[in-house]
Amino acid sequence: MLSRILVPMDDSDQAGHALAYALENFPDADVSVLHVVGVPSMMMGDAVSLTLEDDLDEAAAGRAEPVFERAREIAAERDRAIDTVVGVGHPARNILDRAEEYDTIVVGSHGADRGRASRRFLVGNVAETVSKRSPVPVTIVR
Amino acid sequence: MVETLLLIGVIASIFVGFNIGGSSTGITWGPSVGAGIVTKTTAAGIMTVFVFLGGITVGQNVMETLSEGIITIDLTLSAGVAVLFFIGLGILVANLFGVPVPTSMTTVGAIAGLGLATGTLNYVTIAEIISWWVVTPIIGFWIGGIIGRYVYPEVNRRVEIEKTDGPLLTFDRGGTVPKPALGPNTTRSEVGTTAVVLAIGCYMAFSAGASNVPNAAAPLVGEAGLEVNTAVIIATLAIGLGGFTIARRTMDSVGGELSDIPLLAALFVMVTASTITTALSYIGIPISLVMATVMTIVGIGWGRATRPITFREAVTRDNEARERDIELGVIVAEEKEGKPAPAIGEAETEEVLHGSDLFNPRAVIKYVSMWIIGPSMSTLLAYGFFTLVPGVV
């Protein structure tokens, strides 16, 4: 029985589909939504601005809030509640570092950066890395 | 025939300059435009002027290296045009795949490839250039680190960059000469900070001209047929054209990302990167402005993220310090004061976030790799081309 499910989300449609899939197919499981902020980019703008904030936790939580807001809406439509987890830095690494604490991971096939070849080329495809290295089963949702 | 070839060369030079204009105007003016201090059009105008000044003064040293230093022979027109095509190819790849291919390094690579193919490569000069390429990112990183760790927090506590609504200055057009006056909401310090922001932008535009004008201009100078001044003017106009057109987009993308950073931090980055770039251009080393910029940013972030709470700080800021939990020897990335309890219904964050996770070396290595792959590829391609088609030289 899979009772603890990690759903890494960003603001892409696929991430929303992944959460909906997880909630619908695992009606009794505890679903945690992870959002990673300060993702490395060409000029590291996001990451640097985050470290320059006075309180990293607060700043990270503030930036993650819109994603969690949407996640809660998706959950509320299905009368469910979710846990939220904020991470900073590299998305795949954040997911993999936490993977052991869960029974399975449900992830969207492409993040919000799909189509921006730079991110895809440089940051790598999160879903692909996670599915290759995760110690627990991974479901990739389109 | 020669005229046709020169025309092709000038068109290639304009293509290169146009793209350089897009990217360098983006990073130079992105923060100021993002902060609402200048408009995109004003930025492009100032950019053009200072790029010209940088190119015609300090840029000449870099041009000398490119056209006479790296190879022992003078670049002929056909070879210069071919080199421009390789620079253009690098830019095309950068645009298509959105990867940061440094133009200055591609240029040196292409000319070095020519030198290898014809046995005219000046190994001493190329070794000197490459050593600077290795050292520069490290210098940028450490200067950034020192700023992020020690300077920025201090300055940030004292300086506040203001931007009020409404125009900065208004003009009283009653008299014969319009008299400037402060805008309705403008404060005196706002005028001061705006002037500083503009001055730093001009300085960066100057360094962009010094390091980037030669890429578009040098291949056509000398034996290739153009006077230095003519080539610089063509390159400047092309860069200006890029500044007025595609930079509108890059100011939002690359420059926009830079303006995610607080303006004060962006100004530190700009001053550091411009100084490194201008200094190296002065001694004739072709260097990428973007490289210096990125490494300074990463340095500032890293310096800040790994900022320990020192003994001195714990003593001098005793009251604040007492409220925190300080364990000796523990590196605390962020200062926490009176953190509000999470609202009802929200999960409590159990783990502490570490700023240093943001600066995982692997994240940076991917960009650094482009600084190795870019020039290497252009060297190989140019070497292959000039070996297969020896008649071009």
UniProtKB/TrEMBL annotation, chain A:
Pfam families according to UniProt: Usp (PF00582)
CDD domains: USP-like
Limits of the UspA domain: 1-142
InterPro entries for the chain: Universal_stress_UspA (IPR006015), UspA (IPR006016)
Gene3D superfamilies: 3.40.50.12370
Family label: Belongs to the universal stress protein A family.
UniProt protein name: UspA domain-containing protein
Automatic annotation (TrEMBL), chain B:
GO MF annotation, one: phosphate transmembrane transporter activity
Membrane topology field: Multi-pass membrane protein
Coiled coil: none
Single biological process term from Gene Ontology: phosphate ion transmembrane transport
PANTHER family: PHOSPHATE TRANSPORTER
Pfam families xref list: PHO4 (PF01384)
A single cellular component GO annotation: membrane
Protein's recorded name: Phosphate transporter
Subcellular localization, as worded in the UniProt entry: Membrane
Primary role: Potential transporter for phosphate.
Keyword list, A-Z: Membrane, Phosphate transport, Transmembrane, Transmembrane helix, Transport
The species this protein was found in: Natronococcus amylolyticus DSM 10524
Family as reported in the entry's similarity comment: Belongs to the inorganic phosphate transporter (PiT) (TC 2.A.20) family.
Record-annotated membrane-spanning stretches: 44-63, 75-97, 130-152, 191-208, 228-246, 258-276, 282-302, 368-389
Domain of life: Archaea
